[in-house]
């Protein structure tokens, strides 16, 4: 079902990690993640590894709004967080967006692929 109101402000980082440092990067990212998720405007963040591109990670974080994210982005704690992860990076990019809809499966959905197909 689509959300009736505007969703959160979303930030997506594409991070290229130096070859051979992927496992250490994942460990450090988890160790320093509290510096992001403890901010009162953060709604959560996710780390995903690309299955198509070697050494590429995507970090997605949701915020209550853009102004509060920008407040965090210029904070001392964020700078320290970036400095901890910087030795692993060989490149990256940031994309910001506003979530306009959110669909969920809801309770009572089909248990198997076959049941899902039969509901057409």
UniProtKB/TrEMBL annotation:
Keyword tags: Monooxygenase, Oxidoreductase
GO molecular function: monooxygenase activity
Domain of life (superkingdom): Bacteria
Keyword Oxidoreductase: yes
Region Disordered: start-end pairs: 101-120
Coiled coil stretches, renumbered: none
Record-annotated ABM domain positions: 9-97
Keyword DNA-binding: no
The protein's name: Antibiotic biosynthesis monooxygenase
Species this protein is from: Streptomyces mashuensis
């Amino acid at each position: 079902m689509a959300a009736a109101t505007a969703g959160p402000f979303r930030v997506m980082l594409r991070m290229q990690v130096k070859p051979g440092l992927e496992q250490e990067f994942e460990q450090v990212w988890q160790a320093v993640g509290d510096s992001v998720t403890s901010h009162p405007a953060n709604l959560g963040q996710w780390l995903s590894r690309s299955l198509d591109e070697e050494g590429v990670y995507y970090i997605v974080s949701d915020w209550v709004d853009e102004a509060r994210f920008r407040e965090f982005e210029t904070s001392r704690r964020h700078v320290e967080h970036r400095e901890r992860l910087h030795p692993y990076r060989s490149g990256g990019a940031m994309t910001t967006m506003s979530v306009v809809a959110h669909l969920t499966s809801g309770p009572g959905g089909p248990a198997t692929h076959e049941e899902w197909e039969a509901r057409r």
